[in-house]
Specification:
heterodimer, A: alpha+beta, 28% helix, B: two-stranded antiparallel sheet, 1 helix
Amino acid sequence: MKLWKDLAQELNYNVMYSPRGVMMLAHNVHDAQMLKRILHANRANGVDNEWLEPAQAKAFCPPLNIATDIRYPVLGATLQRRGGTARHDAVAWGYARAADALGVDILENCEVTDMRRDAGGAIEALETTRGLIRTRKVGVVAAGNSSVVMRMAGIRLPLESYPLQALVSEPVKPVFPCVVMSNAIHAYISQSDKGELVIGAGTDSYTSYTQRGALHVDLHTLEAICELFPCFRRLRMLRNWGGIVDVTPDRSPVIGMTPVPGLFVNCGWGTGGFKATPGSAHVFAWTMAKGEPHPIAAPFSLERFRDGRLIDEAAAAGVAH
Amino acid sequence: MLLIQCPYCGERPEIEFSYGGQAHLARPAHPADLSDDEWAAYLYLRDNPRGLHAERWRHVRGCGRFFNALRDTTTDRFAGTYETGESAP
Protein backbone atom coordinates (compact mmCIF):
# COMPACT_ATOMS: atom_id res chain seq x y z
CA MET A 1 0.00 0.00 0.00
CA LYS A 2 2.83 2.39 0.79
CA LEU A 3 4.30 1.70 -2.67
CA TRP A 4 0.99 2.81 -4.25
CA LYS A 5 0.95 6.09 -2.34
CA ASP A 6 3.91 7.59 -4.19
CA LEU A 7 3.67 5.57 -7.39
CA ALA A 8 2.36 8.41 -9.56
CA GLN A 9 5.19 10.68 -8.35
CA GLU A 10 7.81 8.02 -8.94
CA LEU A 11 6.57 7.14 -12.44
CA ASN A 12 5.78 10.78 -13.24
CA TYR A 13 2.45 9.51 -14.53
CA ASN A 14 -0.99 9.98 -13.01
CA VAL A 15 -2.18 6.47 -12.13
CA MET A 16 -5.38 7.95 -10.63
CA TYR A 17 -4.70 6.25 -7.32
CA SER A 18 -7.59 7.05 -5.03
CA PRO A 19 -7.58 5.74 -1.45
CA ARG A 20 -11.31 6.21 -1.06
CA GLY A 21 -11.96 3.32 1.34
CA VAL A 22 -12.82 -0.34 0.77
CA MET A 23 -15.83 -1.73 2.58
CA MET A 24 -16.47 -5.47 2.89
CA LEU A 25 -20.03 -6.40 3.80
CA ALA A 26 -21.23 -9.06 6.22
CA HIS A 27 -24.63 -10.64 5.57
CA ASN A 28 -24.78 -13.30 8.25
CA VAL A 29 -23.21 -14.15 11.60
CA HIS A 30 -20.46 -16.23 9.96
CA ASP A 31 -19.52 -13.39 7.60
CA ALA A 32 -19.34 -11.02 10.57
CA GLN A 33 -17.13 -13.41 12.54
CA MET A 34 -14.79 -14.00 9.60
CA LEU A 35 -14.51 -10.31 8.77
CA LYS A 36 -13.81 -9.47 12.42
CA ARG A 37 -11.15 -12.17 12.51
CA ILE A 38 -9.52 -10.62 9.44
CA LEU A 39 -9.88 -7.17 10.99
CA HIS A 40 -8.04 -8.27 14.13
CA ALA A 41 -5.40 -10.12 12.10
CA ASN A 42 -4.85 -6.91 10.09
CA ARG A 43 -4.57 -4.80 13.23
CA ALA A 44 -2.23 -7.25 14.91
CA ASN A 45 0.05 -6.79 11.90
CA GLY A 46 -0.18 -3.00 11.94
CA VAL A 47 -2.73 -2.66 9.10
CA ASP A 48 -5.66 -0.36 9.79
CA ASN A 49 -9.15 -1.82 9.56
CA GLU A 50 -12.34 -1.01 11.44
CA TRP A 51 -15.79 -2.44 12.07
CA LEU A 52 -18.92 -0.52 11.04
CA GLU A 53 -22.46 -1.18 12.21
CA PRO A 54 -25.07 -1.00 9.40
CA ALA A 55 -25.97 2.65 10.12
CA GLN A 56 -22.28 3.61 10.08
CA ALA A 57 -21.82 1.71 6.82
CA LYS A 58 -24.69 3.64 5.27
CA ALA A 59 -23.24 6.92 6.53
CA PHE A 60 -19.97 6.06 4.75
CA CYS A 61 -21.73 4.81 1.59
CA PRO A 62 -25.18 6.49 1.31
CA PRO A 63 -26.52 4.39 -1.64
CA LEU A 64 -26.24 1.22 0.48
CA ASN A 65 -29.52 -0.51 1.29
CA ILE A 66 -29.50 -1.52 4.96
CA ALA A 67 -33.16 -2.60 5.10
CA THR A 68 -33.57 -5.65 7.31
CA ASP A 69 -36.14 -7.35 5.07
CA ILE A 70 -33.96 -7.91 1.99
CA ARG A 71 -32.77 -11.41 1.08
CA TYR A 72 -29.24 -10.86 2.42
CA PRO A 73 -29.44 -7.95 4.89
CA VAL A 74 -26.29 -6.01 5.78
CA LEU A 75 -25.28 -6.89 9.34
CA GLY A 76 -22.14 -4.79 9.34
CA ALA A 77 -18.95 -4.14 7.41
CA THR A 78 -15.22 -3.77 7.73
CA LEU A 79 -13.66 -0.62 6.37
CA GLN A 80 -10.09 -0.06 5.28
CA ARG A 81 -9.90 3.66 4.69
CA ARG A 82 -6.56 3.53 2.87
CA GLY A 83 -7.86 0.97 0.36
CA GLY A 84 -9.12 2.23 -2.95
CA THR A 85 -8.75 2.18 -6.70
CA ALA A 86 -6.22 3.03 -9.38
CA ARG A 87 -6.60 3.17 -13.13
CA HIS A 88 -5.09 -0.09 -14.36
CA ASP A 89 -4.27 1.19 -17.87
CA ALA A 90 -2.43 4.15 -16.38
CA VAL A 91 -0.44 1.86 -14.10
CA ALA A 92 0.65 -0.24 -17.10
CA TRP A 93 1.45 2.82 -19.24
CA GLY A 94 3.29 4.56 -16.40
CA TYR A 95 5.41 1.53 -15.64
CA ALA A 96 6.16 0.96 -19.35
CA ARG A 97 7.28 4.55 -19.87
CA ALA A 98 9.38 4.61 -16.69
CA ALA A 99 11.01 1.28 -17.56
CA ASP A 100 11.71 2.50 -21.10
CA ALA A 101 13.36 5.63 -19.69
CA LEU A 102 15.61 3.39 -17.59
CA GLY A 103 16.77 1.55 -20.73
CA VAL A 104 14.45 -1.46 -20.72
CA ASP A 105 13.56 -2.76 -24.20
CA ILE A 106 9.86 -3.56 -24.45
CA LEU A 107 9.03 -5.69 -27.51
CA GLU A 108 5.35 -5.54 -28.32
CA ASN A 109 3.52 -8.12 -30.42
CA CYS A 110 6.39 -10.54 -29.92
CA GLU A 111 5.20 -14.01 -28.97
CA VAL A 112 7.54 -16.45 -27.26
CA THR A 113 7.31 -19.70 -29.19
CA ASP A 114 9.90 -21.84 -27.38
CA MET A 115 12.60 -21.84 -24.72
CA ARG A 116 16.04 -23.27 -25.53
CA ARG A 117 17.99 -25.02 -22.79
CA ASP A 118 21.65 -26.08 -22.77
CA ALA A 119 23.01 -29.57 -22.09
CA GLY A 120 22.76 -28.95 -18.34
CA GLY A 121 19.12 -27.97 -18.65
CA ALA A 122 19.68 -24.27 -17.97
CA ILE A 123 17.96 -21.54 -19.97
CA GLU A 124 19.99 -20.56 -23.03
CA ALA A 125 17.67 -18.60 -25.32
CA LEU A 126 14.10 -17.66 -26.17
CA GLU A 127 12.63 -18.30 -29.60
CA THR A 128 10.12 -15.64 -30.55
CA THR A 129 8.04 -14.65 -33.57
CA ARG A 130 10.57 -11.84 -34.11
CA GLY A 131 13.74 -13.89 -33.76
CA LEU A 132 16.04 -15.47 -31.20
CA ILE A 133 16.91 -13.79 -27.87
CA ARG A 134 19.98 -15.24 -26.15
CA THR A 135 19.82 -15.01 -22.37
CA ARG A 136 20.70 -16.98 -19.25
CA LYS A 137 17.83 -15.57 -17.21
CA VAL A 138 14.12 -15.54 -18.00
CA GLY A 139 11.29 -14.30 -15.78
CA VAL A 140 7.86 -15.54 -16.80
CA VAL A 141 4.98 -13.27 -15.79
CA ALA A 142 2.27 -14.50 -18.14
CA ALA A 143 -0.85 -14.37 -15.93
CA GLY A 144 -3.57 -16.64 -17.37
CA ASN A 145 -1.17 -18.16 -19.89
CA SER A 146 1.54 -19.10 -17.37
CA SER A 147 0.88 -22.84 -17.80
CA VAL A 148 1.21 -22.51 -21.58
CA VAL A 149 4.51 -20.61 -21.47
CA MET A 150 6.10 -22.70 -18.73
CA ARG A 151 5.30 -25.90 -20.59
CA MET A 152 7.84 -24.73 -23.20
CA ALA A 153 10.49 -25.34 -20.53
CA GLY A 154 8.93 -28.68 -19.60
CA ILE A 155 7.36 -27.46 -16.35
CA ARG A 156 3.82 -28.27 -15.24
CA LEU A 157 2.39 -25.79 -12.78
CA PRO A 158 -0.24 -26.13 -10.04
CA LEU A 159 -2.51 -23.77 -11.98
CA GLU A 160 -5.91 -23.69 -13.63
CA SER A 161 -6.99 -20.76 -15.84
CA TYR A 162 -10.51 -19.35 -15.66
CA PRO A 163 -12.32 -16.40 -17.27
CA LEU A 164 -13.06 -13.65 -14.72
CA GLN A 165 -15.67 -11.14 -15.78
CA ALA A 166 -16.09 -7.44 -15.19
CA LEU A 167 -18.58 -4.95 -16.56
CA VAL A 168 -19.16 -1.21 -16.58
CA SER A 169 -22.36 0.81 -16.64
CA GLU A 170 -23.20 3.92 -18.61
CA PRO A 171 -21.41 6.93 -17.06
CA VAL A 172 -23.29 8.91 -14.42
CA LYS A 173 -22.45 11.82 -12.13
CA PRO A 174 -20.48 11.00 -8.97
CA VAL A 175 -22.86 8.85 -6.94
CA PHE A 176 -20.66 6.23 -5.36
CA PRO A 177 -17.98 7.36 -2.90
CA CYS A 178 -16.05 4.19 -2.11
CA VAL A 179 -15.41 0.54 -3.01
CA VAL A 180 -17.91 -2.02 -1.74
CA MET A 181 -17.35 -5.76 -1.86
CA SER A 182 -19.49 -8.61 -0.71
CA ASN A 183 -17.99 -12.07 -0.78
CA ALA A 184 -21.17 -13.78 0.39
CA ILE A 185 -23.33 -12.58 -2.49
CA HIS A 186 -20.42 -12.02 -4.83
CA ALA A 187 -20.23 -8.40 -5.83
CA TYR A 188 -17.63 -5.70 -6.31
CA ILE A 189 -18.54 -2.12 -7.18
CA SER A 190 -16.84 1.25 -7.42
CA GLN A 191 -17.17 4.29 -9.68
CA SER A 192 -14.46 5.33 -12.12
CA ASP A 193 -13.45 8.94 -12.67
CA LYS A 194 -15.25 8.76 -16.04
CA GLY A 195 -18.46 8.06 -14.11
CA GLU A 196 -18.96 4.43 -15.07
CA LEU A 197 -19.81 2.03 -12.30
CA VAL A 198 -17.15 -0.67 -12.38
CA ILE A 199 -18.60 -4.01 -11.38
CA GLY A 200 -16.65 -7.18 -10.77
CA ALA A 201 -18.35 -10.52 -11.31
CA GLY A 202 -17.09 -14.02 -10.69
CA THR A 203 -15.24 -16.67 -12.64
CA ASP A 204 -16.82 -19.36 -14.75
CA SER A 205 -16.81 -22.78 -13.16
CA TYR A 206 -14.67 -24.34 -15.90
CA THR A 207 -11.15 -23.63 -17.20
CA SER A 208 -11.04 -21.63 -20.40
CA TYR A 209 -8.89 -19.26 -22.45
CA THR A 210 -11.78 -17.70 -24.36
CA GLN A 211 -11.61 -14.26 -22.67
CA ARG A 212 -15.35 -14.13 -22.39
CA GLY A 213 -17.65 -15.66 -19.84
CA ALA A 214 -21.18 -16.85 -19.39
CA LEU A 215 -23.92 -14.24 -18.96
CA HIS A 216 -25.42 -15.99 -15.95
CA VAL A 217 -22.24 -15.16 -14.00
CA ASP A 218 -22.81 -11.44 -14.62
CA LEU A 219 -26.51 -11.69 -13.84
CA HIS A 220 -25.73 -13.32 -10.51
CA THR A 221 -23.59 -10.33 -9.53
CA LEU A 222 -26.05 -7.75 -10.93
CA GLU A 223 -28.84 -9.26 -8.85
CA ALA A 224 -26.70 -8.69 -5.76
CA ILE A 225 -25.84 -5.12 -6.85
CA CYS A 226 -29.50 -4.28 -7.49
CA GLU A 227 -30.50 -5.53 -4.07
CA LEU A 228 -27.73 -3.70 -2.22
CA PHE A 229 -28.09 -0.49 -4.26
CA PRO A 230 -31.71 -0.22 -5.49
CA CYS A 231 -30.93 3.20 -7.05
CA PHE A 232 -28.89 1.41 -9.76
CA ARG A 233 -31.73 -0.82 -10.93
CA ARG A 234 -32.55 1.31 -14.00
CA LEU A 235 -28.91 1.77 -15.01
CA ARG A 236 -27.78 0.21 -18.29
CA MET A 237 -24.58 -1.77 -18.64
CA LEU A 238 -22.23 -0.58 -21.38
CA ARG A 239 -19.89 -3.52 -21.86
CA ASN A 240 -18.55 -6.64 -20.22
CA TRP A 241 -15.42 -8.66 -20.77
CA GLY A 242 -13.54 -11.63 -19.43
CA GLY A 243 -9.88 -11.83 -18.49
CA ILE A 244 -8.08 -15.11 -17.96
CA VAL A 245 -6.83 -15.58 -14.41
CA ASP A 246 -4.47 -18.34 -13.26
CA VAL A 247 -5.55 -19.84 -9.95
CA THR A 248 -3.43 -21.97 -7.61
CA PRO A 249 -4.85 -24.69 -5.33
CA ASP A 250 -4.26 -22.54 -2.21
CA ARG A 251 -5.24 -19.23 -3.90
CA SER A 252 -1.86 -17.70 -3.09
CA PRO A 253 0.61 -16.67 -5.81
CA VAL A 254 3.84 -18.36 -6.83
CA ILE A 255 6.91 -16.09 -6.89
CA GLY A 256 10.35 -17.53 -7.25
CA MET A 257 12.77 -19.97 -8.79
CA THR A 258 11.88 -23.07 -10.79
CA PRO A 259 13.62 -26.46 -11.25
CA VAL A 260 15.11 -25.06 -14.50
CA PRO A 261 18.28 -22.99 -13.79
CA GLY A 262 17.84 -19.41 -14.95
CA LEU A 263 14.06 -19.63 -15.17
CA PHE A 264 11.94 -17.64 -12.72
CA VAL A 265 8.18 -17.44 -12.45
CA ASN A 266 5.66 -15.00 -10.97
CA CYS A 267 2.16 -16.41 -11.44
CA GLY A 268 -0.97 -17.71 -9.75
CA TRP A 269 -2.33 -14.32 -8.73
CA GLY A 270 -5.83 -15.49 -9.53
CA THR A 271 -8.42 -12.77 -9.33
CA GLY A 272 -6.43 -10.37 -7.17
CA GLY A 273 -3.10 -9.59 -8.81
CA PHE A 274 -3.52 -5.94 -9.77
CA LYS A 275 -3.29 -4.55 -6.26
CA ALA A 276 0.01 -6.37 -5.76
CA THR A 277 1.66 -4.93 -8.89
CA PRO A 278 4.35 -2.76 -7.24
CA GLY A 279 5.01 -5.17 -4.38
CA SER A 280 5.24 -8.34 -6.44
CA ALA A 281 7.37 -6.62 -9.10
CA HIS A 282 9.79 -5.47 -6.40
CA VAL A 283 10.35 -8.87 -4.78
CA PHE A 284 10.40 -10.66 -8.15
CA ALA A 285 13.06 -8.33 -9.56
CA TRP A 286 15.12 -8.83 -6.38
CA THR A 287 14.75 -12.62 -6.70
CA MET A 288 15.87 -12.58 -10.35
CA ALA A 289 18.79 -10.22 -9.77
CA LYS A 290 20.22 -12.13 -6.81
CA GLY A 291 19.27 -15.64 -7.89
CA GLU A 292 17.73 -16.40 -4.50
CA PRO A 293 14.23 -15.83 -3.13
CA HIS A 294 13.46 -12.44 -1.59
CA PRO A 295 12.60 -12.96 2.13
CA ILE A 296 9.00 -11.85 1.52
CA ALA A 297 8.65 -14.09 -1.57
CA ALA A 298 10.40 -17.11 -0.04
CA PRO A 299 7.25 -18.82 1.38
CA PHE A 300 5.52 -18.40 -2.01
CA SER A 301 7.77 -20.94 -3.75
CA LEU A 302 6.72 -23.77 -6.06
CA GLU A 303 8.17 -26.18 -3.48
CA ARG A 304 5.47 -25.31 -0.95
CA PHE A 305 3.14 -27.72 -2.74
CA ARG A 306 5.67 -30.55 -2.43
CA ASP A 307 6.47 -29.69 1.20
CA GLY A 308 2.86 -29.27 2.28
CA ARG A 309 3.42 -25.66 3.35
CA LEU A 310 0.37 -24.25 1.60
CA ILE A 311 -0.56 -20.63 2.25
CA ASP A 312 -4.28 -20.54 2.95
CA GLU A 313 -4.66 -16.78 2.88
CA ALA A 314 -7.47 -16.16 0.39
CA ALA A 315 -8.66 -13.39 2.71
CA ALA A 316 -5.36 -11.56 2.29
CA ALA A 317 -6.07 -11.24 -1.42
CA GLY A 318 -9.44 -9.68 -0.61
CA VAL A 319 -11.14 -11.88 -3.19
CA ALA A 320 -13.80 -14.51 -2.92
CA HIS A 321 -12.16 -17.44 -4.64
CA MET B 1 -23.95 -20.37 -21.13
CA LEU B 2 -22.77 -23.72 -22.41
CA LEU B 3 -25.12 -26.37 -23.74
CA ILE B 4 -23.80 -29.69 -22.46
CA GLN B 5 -24.62 -33.13 -23.76
CA CYS B 6 -25.13 -35.38 -20.74
CA PRO B 7 -24.52 -38.94 -22.01
CA TYR B 8 -27.52 -40.08 -19.95
CA CYS B 9 -30.04 -37.21 -20.27
CA GLY B 10 -29.18 -35.34 -23.48
CA GLU B 11 -28.49 -31.63 -23.99
CA ARG B 12 -29.04 -29.45 -20.93
CA PRO B 13 -27.94 -25.91 -19.92
CA GLU B 14 -24.67 -25.50 -18.06
CA ILE B 15 -26.28 -24.40 -14.78
CA GLU B 16 -27.56 -27.97 -14.31
CA PHE B 17 -23.95 -29.18 -14.12
CA SER B 18 -20.95 -28.81 -11.88
CA TYR B 19 -17.40 -28.86 -13.20
CA GLY B 20 -15.00 -31.48 -11.89
CA GLY B 21 -11.61 -30.47 -13.29
CA GLN B 22 -9.14 -32.46 -15.38
CA ALA B 23 -10.28 -36.02 -16.18
CA HIS B 24 -8.37 -39.30 -16.08
CA LEU B 25 -6.36 -38.47 -12.95
CA ALA B 26 -6.16 -41.82 -11.23
CA ARG B 27 -5.34 -41.89 -7.53
CA PRO B 28 -2.05 -43.78 -7.17
CA ALA B 29 -2.60 -47.35 -5.97
CA HIS B 30 0.07 -47.11 -3.26
CA PRO B 31 0.42 -43.48 -2.13
CA ALA B 32 2.89 -44.42 0.61
CA ASP B 33 5.36 -45.62 -2.03
CA LEU B 34 5.43 -42.24 -3.82
CA SER B 35 8.05 -39.55 -3.40
CA ASP B 36 6.87 -36.14 -2.18
CA ASP B 37 7.26 -34.79 -5.73
CA GLU B 38 5.10 -37.55 -7.22
CA TRP B 39 2.38 -37.10 -4.59
CA ALA B 40 2.37 -33.30 -5.04
CA ALA B 41 2.14 -33.81 -8.82
CA TYR B 42 -0.93 -36.03 -8.37
CA LEU B 43 -2.57 -33.57 -5.96
CA TYR B 44 -1.76 -30.23 -7.54
CA LEU B 45 -0.20 -30.23 -11.02
CA ARG B 46 -2.64 -29.84 -13.91
CA ASP B 47 -2.21 -29.69 -17.70
CA ASN B 48 -4.33 -26.52 -18.04
CA PRO B 49 -3.93 -26.64 -21.84
CA ARG B 50 -4.86 -24.14 -24.53
CA GLY B 51 -6.86 -26.43 -26.78
CA LEU B 52 -8.56 -29.77 -26.24
CA HIS B 53 -9.09 -30.63 -22.59
CA ALA B 54 -10.51 -33.87 -21.18
CA GLU B 55 -12.51 -32.92 -18.11
CA ARG B 56 -15.08 -34.23 -15.65
CA TRP B 57 -18.58 -32.88 -15.32
CA ARG B 58 -21.40 -33.93 -13.03
CA HIS B 59 -25.07 -33.52 -13.97
CA VAL B 60 -25.71 -32.50 -10.39
CA ARG B 61 -29.17 -30.96 -10.94
CA GLY B 62 -30.23 -33.77 -13.26
CA CYS B 63 -29.34 -37.45 -13.10
CA GLY B 64 -26.52 -36.75 -10.63
CA ARG B 65 -24.02 -38.83 -12.58
CA PHE B 66 -20.40 -38.02 -13.43
CA PHE B 67 -19.18 -38.16 -17.01
CA ASN B 68 -16.26 -36.88 -19.05
CA ALA B 69 -16.11 -34.33 -21.84
CA LEU B 70 -13.60 -33.19 -24.41
CA ARG B 71 -13.73 -29.40 -24.81
CA ASP B 72 -11.58 -26.88 -26.67
CA THR B 73 -10.56 -24.26 -24.07
CA THR B 74 -9.94 -21.64 -26.79
CA THR B 75 -13.52 -21.79 -28.12
CA ASP B 76 -15.47 -23.60 -25.35
CA ARG B 77 -16.85 -25.95 -28.05
CA PHE B 78 -17.37 -29.54 -26.94
CA ALA B 79 -15.83 -32.21 -29.17
CA GLY B 80 -17.94 -34.77 -27.35
CA THR B 81 -18.92 -36.27 -24.03
CA TYR B 82 -18.40 -39.85 -22.89
CA GLU B 83 -19.08 -42.07 -19.91
CA THR B 84 -16.72 -42.35 -16.95
CA GLY B 85 -14.31 -45.23 -17.48
CA GLU B 86 -14.18 -44.85 -21.26
CA SER B 87 -11.09 -43.37 -22.85
CA ALA B 88 -11.30 -39.98 -24.58
CA PRO B 89 -12.65 -40.16 -28.17
